[in-house]
Amino acid sequence: MVLEKQRCPCGTAETYQQCCGPYLTGDALPPTAEALMRSRYTAFVVQDSAYLAESWHSETRPDDVSAPTGVAWRRLRIRQTIDGGPSDDTGIVEFVAHLRTPDGARDFLHERSTFARERGRWVYVSGDIR
After folding, report:
1. Which residues form the YchJ-like middle NTF2-like domain (predicted)?
2. Most CB contacts within 10 A, which of 5, 29, 47, 95?
3. Nearest to 57 by CA among 116, 120, 128
4. Where exactly are the structural domains of the chain?
5. Is the CATH number 1.10.3660.10 carried by domain 21-129?
6. Separation in Å, CA 107 to CA 21, 66, 94
7. pLDDT tens-digit series, residues 64-79
């Protein structure tokens, strides 16, 4: 999927290259928990399982971190962000991700995710499905 000049899948008004692209390529680190959340959503859209694994806390990361195939991710809405700023060590991001299942049904994932810094960079720790 070539996204460089297209609007970023995470829902900002920026292009992929101005937004999540540099995080997925390793050229930059997300400065906030929300930026990491958005980049992880984008990784699901483009099925970048390596980025999903790298951005998952080492103590909670499962053995298999694969983006699901056949899911069409449609839209991300951030509902709430608590802490997770450039000077914080932890943060929470509540989001709703709209999707279409492989059989074409509309669905969504509503999660309250916890993030922390590990070796100076933001990582996903865990999430509670709502």
Report:
1. 32-127
2. 95
3. 116
4. 21-129
5. no
6. 26, 19, 17
7. 999 889 999 999 999 9
